[in-house]
Design a protein that fits this description.
heterodimer; A: 613 residues; alpha/beta; Alpha-Beta Plaits; Rossmann fold; 3 domains; five-stranded mixed beta sheet; 20 helices; 34% helix; B: alpha+beta; Glutaredoxin; 2 domains; 5 strands; elongated
């Protein structure tokens, strides 16, 4: 296949900060703690000294996204300056004499953190972020042994539990503004902002309606950047423990591609450690009766979505067609661009296809009553919790309704619980599993079988690449020489490419983050979109940078996880979804063909026009 | 007495106001102020804020952030008469706390002092009491603004006289 043009657009990668886009590479001389250095001009003190082997503590600065200088922890002393300066918003200048740890600096940092701690709850031991909290770490690093300021908040503020995916605790909020910045600057969603002022300031939604009642996409990027436990995933581990201990239930688990490159970090291993085999072994030790792979239904998604694209191309259907795997993106378009919903593929996401197939095909094959089956999914994503509870995600129930004379009260979801990577890590720790010492194990048959095309669903551009691998061979009936589509890989905000399918030129685009998705949607709504097929992932870097992944998740860590994803793909014997033998068997025995009647019943869905106002 | 809430500005009226501010810097604040003033109860309802957000392309969270930041904006219907007591430093040292206390006893809303809120409207919707940090009239402290008119070096006795006159249905205080 020829990839005739490769266009990578500049300046739209998520959160480019102006200070790092300076073209002229002039330098200036500075001294830090009495030592002389030459550093590039146009950098902040924080950026400049971090390249020199220092790390200035900060609670509000968020690399590449925001610096609102609200926490006052990053102050440094600069000779000649009247007051201490916030290093996150002060640029280096020629001859600057900077001191990072004078008694005055340390005293100011301590005072600022003590002020934050005065009203902060002291229930660290029972907080979800215990031992993974920046406020806790900084208090420890600064040697805070006393909080001199009395608590001024008289009554606890109410929690926001309206969302299916996230819980906000304003009492733990230190008003750093990172969540507001990421929701606005990276995602362009603006679900939250700082309300009120002074001592009454709070991060909240429009009229305090709660995240579940406003245009929030549940992406969870806010939870990923929160320095404390003020916004966290809604925990479902207790429910899963209960199911695992119920002898009447058959509890099966599916794992998304991005878990195998993230879970290791939460278990104390290096960034981006590839832990597929250990993860399977650990899940078996937790007591799941079968350990299956969401990648199996990622391959199935490619079969359905690939054929949907071919059908749209040949029947004059709505183009461009846009992928539908990312539930944050789905809720985003339902709220912000409801008139463009016809562009979205009708395919359910791999998580939902898995639930529907497990509770029909697999349950039937194994003679399990679908009512006794519990499907748990491990996802890098908080939005998957919401997706699993959408009323239309009961394909298996409707399939069995007539066959088993089920009543309304018997209703069950295709996926019972969606846990984030972080929740799984907590369960493994509770179960005393020594993760790094586990021998690698294999997924169970049949729903654990997947190809390289399915692995790369975890990275931005992966669904596109997987779809192209299959679409090319289905359309041209020719063998694809190289399966690596480099043009759609990498962390650029929007990538585009043109591929040649037997003389038909197919223009495709890939976007990650919802702010980038907006750019492509504006083109579509103006009738100016040159593309036939678009992949959109909600989170920066794709699922591997999802809102349910281990904290921290930074650009550097995303790159490491992506490397592992592509390494896993390259090592797979089969790298094209349509060559997955179990998928072929599933069609032969059950679904018959892509886009068949049964497929439509179980694997496809429709969307809701939600709007914003 | 009719205490029902009168109709707020229609979508068309809001659109007209937005158009008037087109291209002016800080337009949103001006729009919010004008829409609030056009409301018979001097407040911005949820529906009104939604309409302004929609027609100015402002996120809902942003507009609510703005409306809750400035004490000038009201999110609840206001009483017929507005009484604003300055609680700035100069007024405080010249007895504004006592003025406020006397006012709340007079209007039977002593709870307001303990509530931590900065606005209170009497049950009969006759008066809204508010506090502000400073009017910038420190030389004339203590000051109280009644229906937009600032009364300088005011005493509890004078304040009582004005309130009683207004309560009896006297004309809007000029």
């Amino acid at each position: 296949m020829e990839q005739t043009t490769v266009k990578k657009q500049d300046g739209i990668s998520p959160g480019t900060v102006s200070s790092s886009t300076h073209k002229e590479v002039s330098t200036c001389s500075i001294t830090v703690n009495g030592k002389s250095y030459t550093v590039p001009k146009g950098k902040t003190i924080l950026e400049a000294v971090s390249a020199l082997g220092y790390s200035i503590p900060t609670l509000c600065h968020l690399n590449e996204v925001s610096s609102n200088a609200s926490c006052g922890v990053c102050v440094v002393e600069v000779k000649g300056a009247k007051s201490l300066l916030r290093s996150c918003v002060t640029n280096v200048t020629e001859g600057m004499d900077i001191h990072l740890a004078t008694p005055r600096v340390l005293a100011a940092r301590r005072t600022n953190v003590e002020l934050l701690l005065a009203n902060h709850p002291k229930d660290c031991l029972s907080c979800i972020r215990n031992q993974n909290c920046e406020l806790q770490s900084i208090a420890s690093y600064l040697g805070i042994d006393d909080i001199r300021f009395a608590q001024t908040r008289k009554k606890l503020l109410p929690l926001d539990t309206t969302s299916e995916s996230l819980v906000r605790d304003p009492n733990k909020c230190i008003l750093c503004g990172r969540c507001v910045a990421v929701c606005s600057e990276v995602q362009g969603v603006n679900a939250i902002d700082v309300m009120g002022r002074g001592a009454k300031s709070q991060v909240a939604t429009f009229f305090f309606k709660g995240l579940g009642n406003v245009a929030c996409t549940n992406c969870g990027q806010c939870a990923l950047v929160c320095p404390t436990g003020a916004i966290v995933e809604k925990d479902h581990t207790k429910e899963v423990w209960k199911a695992l201990q119920d002898p009447k239930k058959v509890v099966v688990v599916q794992t998304a591609p991005a878990i195998r490159v993230g879970l290791g970090e939460a278990m104390g291993m290096d960034w981006g450690s590839l832990v597929t085999g250990k993860m399977v072994a650990a899940l078996r030790r937790l007591g799941f009766s079968k350990v299956f792979d969401t990648q199996f239904t990622a391959d199935l998604t490619i079969m359905e979505e690939g054929h949907e694209l071919i059908q749209r191309l040949s029947n004059g259907g709505k183009l461009p067609m846009i992928t539908s795997c990312s539930p944050g993106w789905i809720k985003f378009i339902e709220h912000f661009y409801p008139n463009s919903l016809a562009h979205v593929s009708t395919c359910k996401s791999p998580q939902q296809m898995f639930g529907a197939v497990a509770k029909t095909y697999y349950a039937e094959k194994m003679g399990i009553d679908p009512r006794d089956m519990v499907v748990v999914s491990i996802m890098p994503c908080t939005a998957k919790k919401y997706e699993a509870k959408r009323p239309e995600m009961m394909g298996a129930f409707h399939y069995w309704q007539a066959r088993l004379n089920l009543l309304e009260k018997d209703k069950f979801y295709d996926v019972d619980y969606a846990l984030t990577t972080r929740e799984l890590a907590r369960m493994l720790k509770q179960a005393s599993i020594k993760f790094d010492a586990l021998e690698e194990e294999e997924f169970d048959d049949p729903l654990g079988h997947s190809t390289g095309a399915a692995v790369i669903f975890g990275a931005t551009g992966g669904v596109m690449e997987a779809a192209l691998r299959t679409a090319y061979e289905v359309v041209t009936k020719k063998h694809l020489q190289s399966v690596d589509f480099q043009a759609v890989r990498g962390l650029e905000g929007i990538k585009s490419a043109e591929v040649d399918l037997n003389g038909t030129k197919l223009k495709v685009a890939v976007a990650h983050t919802l702010k980038n998705a907006r750019i492509l949607l504006e083109q579509i709504e103006k009738g100016e979109s040159p593309y036939a097929f678009i992949e959109i992932m909600t989170c920066p870097g794709g699922c591997l940078g999802g809102g349910g992944q281990p904290i921290p998740t930074t650009t550097e860590i995303r790159k490491k996880r992506a490397e592992s994803i592509y390494r896993e793909d390259a090592g797979k014997g089969i790298r094209k979804s349509h060559e997955n033998p179990v998928i072929q068997k599933l069609y032969k025995e059950f679904l018959r063909e892509p886009l068949s009647h049964v497929s439509h019943e179980l694997l496809h869905t429709d969307y809701t026009k939600r709007g914003v106002y | 007495m009719n205490t029902s809430v009168m109709p707020a500005a229609s979508e068309q009226q809001i659109l007209d106001i937005i158009n008037r501010f087109q291209g002016k810097p800080g337009a949103l604040l001006g729009i919010l102020e004008t829409v609030q003033e056009s409301n018979p109860h001097k407040f911005l309802s949820e529906e009104t804020l939604q309409l302004i957000a929609k027609h100015t392309g402002t996120p809902l969270s942003r507009i609510y952030s703005l409306a809750t930041f400035y004490s000038f904006f009201n999110l609840q219907p206001q009483g017929e008469h507005s009484i604003v007591v300055c609680r700035g430093t100069a007024c405080h040292t010249r007895g504004s706390r006592v003025l406020l206390e006397d006012l709340t006893y007079l209007l039977d809303c002593a709870d307001f002092l303990e509530s931590g809120e900065n606005s209170f409207t009497t049950k009969d919707k006759k008066f809204t009491i508010k506090t502000v940090a400073c009017f910038g009239q420190c030389a004339l402290a203590p000051v109280v603004s009644i229906d937009g008119v600032i009364h300088s070096r005011i005493t509890s006795a004078r304040l009582k006289g004005i309130i009683e006159k207004l309560a009896k249905g006297g004309k809007k205080h000029e």
